[in-house]
Fold:
Amino acid sequence: MLFAQNNYFRPMKIEIDKDAGFCFGVSHAIKMAEEYLKDHSYLYCLGDIVHNKSEVKRLSDLGLRIIDYSIFRQLKDETVLIRAHGEPVETYKIASQNNIDLIEGTCPIVTRLQKMIREEASENQPQVVIFGKKNHPEAIGLASRVSSNVQITQNTEELELDYCKPVYVYSQTTMDKELYEVFYLHIQERAEHECSNPHVRVQDSVCGKVANRAKQIRDFVGHHDVVIFVSGANSSNGNYLFQVARKVNPNTYFVSDVDQLNSDWLKQAESVGISGATSTPVWLMEKVKARISQMD
Structure:
């Protein structure tokens, strides 16, 4: 990472990370919302459609109404979008009871994982461990496909398992693949230590888009003097990738919108990279690029 040492003018190179931006699941759900709102004045969405306030505002201006579970339970004869994270089984029961028409925006990768967990847990009745965040809607939805013996955790110290009985391990699709590997290897090693005939089955269920992002962003940020990382403050994927980027390039700055840009960050920089989370819209990164161009 080299900075200009001379005071004469050099045009600043500004590049948007081609691998940044919405994953397929988020793009799919947003497209469904946009298509519906072309012919209707409003559409309910259960929870934020994406962890990015700027994109949520854009869609809200089109008529998307974000609701929580307390409001959802009171709705009747309405249409509600299910976001890419998916929903627990209980949500579909409520919809059926209240004559709510659901637009299924669950990411196909999540849908396949839901089905897999339901079928395998029903057939073999193992102990099920989901590597994920306890309060994350996707993890909650995955766990709801299992009637019993299911745990959601990222911490091996929290595990309550009989290692001499079958253990099936899955990951929330948006988790870091390297951390997941450390997690399930601990379970396998513990089972091998405690049992003569261990049965630990691990499903590689991290989304390919998410799994590759850490490596991609390491490669990208190393080619720029300064990196502007664009993401919603409440995006777990965004916060994780920002830390990955900053370890490689300390001149990496986190913004959620153009108003947070600081011209002091760009002093003497010849090359600026713009990247983001899987929940960051491309239009927002382009907006950041345009503002940086005005600062040049």
User: Anything to note?
Assistant: The chain has three domains: 13-21+209-295, 24-105, 109-206.
